[in-house]
Amino acid sequence: MTSRTTGRLAAALLVAAASASMAGSAWAQQASGASGGTATDLSSAGNTNGGGLPQIEQQGDVSYTSGGVGLDESRALLREQAHWPLSLRFTGPTSDYLSGVHVRVVGGKGGEVLSTESMGPYMLVKLPPGNYTVYAKYKDQEKKQAVTVAGPGKAKAAFHWNIQ
After folding, report:
1. Is the dihedral angle over the CA atoms 55, 59, 60, 63 positive or is it negative?
2. 51 falls in which pLDDT band (50, 70, 90)?
3. What is the 8-class DSSP label of residue 76?
């Protein structure tokens, strides 16, 4: 086999693999009942913020957003984390992104300031400066991390589980 033929074969295999991957993702999204925008739609499903950022929620004095299942949301959340005081990330085995993580944020005096479920692997939280403990529970395993919020883009916490 010549190197030109080998190169064409490799290119054809790469195109086939990419096509299968996209078709599989579309099938998985359709099978799960998930819905979202098209490639030219810059909004996320059910969101009015534009630019792919998931809907901003409010709980008491705390604003937060979570998501990142789609590429547009992931990019928007990563881009926006510099403007939010606390950034959280949730991963599973082999660094799989997780959603459905129950998140609780407790203030330094022991008062719960946020209790919600993540809609994807990224969560951004607007909190006043101070010391907090973040509890993240996936399935039956809860993890916790202490964080100090000092201003936008400063506090980050990553949670990783080895369960599926």
Report:
1. negative
2. low
3. H
d(CA 80, CA 64): 12
Tokens linked to 142: 């809860």
Q: What angle do CA 12, 15, 20 make, to 5 degrees?
A: 125
* Own/partner long-range contacts of 68-71 (Cβ < 8 Å, ≥24 apart): 68/97, 68/120, 68/121, 68/122, 69/34, 69/97, 69/99, 69/119, 69/120, 69/121, 70/36, 70/44
For 146, other C-beta atoms within 10 Å of its C-beta total 11
Give 5-38 as a 3 state SS string: HHHHHHHHHHHHHHHHHHHHHHHHHHHHCCCCCC
- For residue 118, the model assigns a pLDDT of 96
Q: Is the pLDDT of residue 48 over 70?
A: no
Cβ atoms of 90 and 39 within 8 Å: the answer is no
For the chain, which domains are there? 57-160 (2.60.40.10)
pLDDT in tens, 145-158: 999 999 888 899 99
Model confidence pLDDT, tens digit, residues 110-139: 899 999 999 999 999 999 999 999 999 999
